[in-house]
Design brief:
With 343 residues, the chain is an alpha+beta fold. The protein has helices at residues 6-14, 17-53, 58-83, 91-104, 107-121, 163-168, 195-208, 249-266, 289-294, 298-303, 316-342; strands spanning 130-133, 138-144, 148-152, 158-162, 171-173, 183-189, 222-229, 232-239.
Length: 343
Amino acid sequence: MTRASPLEAARDWLSSEGLVAVGGRVLVALAIVGATYVLVKTMQLGLERLRRRAKVASPLIYIIEKVATYALAVAGLIAGLATLGVDLNSFTVFAGAIGVGAGLGLQGVVKEFVSGLVLIFDPAIQVGDFIELESGLRGEVMEIGPRATRLRTNDDLHVVIPNSKFMQSQVINWTYDDESGRIHVAFTVAEEADKAVVRDVVIAAAQALPFTAPDRPDRKTQVWMTGFAGEGLDFELIVWPTLESSRHPSSMRAAYTWAVHEALRAAGISNASPQLDLRLRSLFGREGDHALRALDMADRSKSVPREPIPERAPNDAAAAVFDDAARNSRARDAEPRRRETQA
């Protein structure tokens, strides 16, 4: 009996029915996984576009998008394994091993995944909300993923934050509903300033800014006096901005601060500053101009000219509020195209 050559043995093995059957199953499994991937991406992009158009039902569509894509991906993987002939009953042992691994080395991944599922169904934080973390980081929620949530700041920076951070720390949602929250802008004036004049001037300056919401019975622009000391009178401007401007708290607060300072300066109201005031009531039995003449200061005090108030500079922060809003709107519109490019 002659021995077959290695080439003939390899040819016989490749042409065997068993190998052909195994190869066919592998190809079918790969086709199922590939089709599942394409279907998941197509459904994800379609729901993403629908969510961009449907403003009211956007949170519900986002939940459907995430749950459906996760379920479809798992179903495609299971179908591929079944096509290969893998006994899914033995999967219970494998699942038990995975559970032990998740409890040890993969507990961080599982924690982030579960936190992501909670965030998807939690109405307190949704895609499109502008939030502020306990660390002071502010940004718009662009995506809630299985491991992390992506924020986009007003400086066009994309920050990826683990999902568990939102479950374990304080989060301020600036756009939780259709009403904006009021802000406090502190300022201090000289002690001799007329409080009524300060109030009228500052309120007029705040209402002149285009992103100040109109007064309502329960939402009014006000000026509160919060304290007084030897250095001056402490006030706070209480103002209700529009909802869109609430997405830009830094530039908005800077715009109000600028407007208050410009208005006070134009009204001749001085800012409080630490200084020592020496009041001379009498000198050698003389008062007023007679005392100044004794010190040879009468003519000098009258000859000192008052410094003119310089021209008003543009309020760049007020313009930045609208610039940021326009840039953020373009970023939201470009988000689906960015995901299509990545896909």
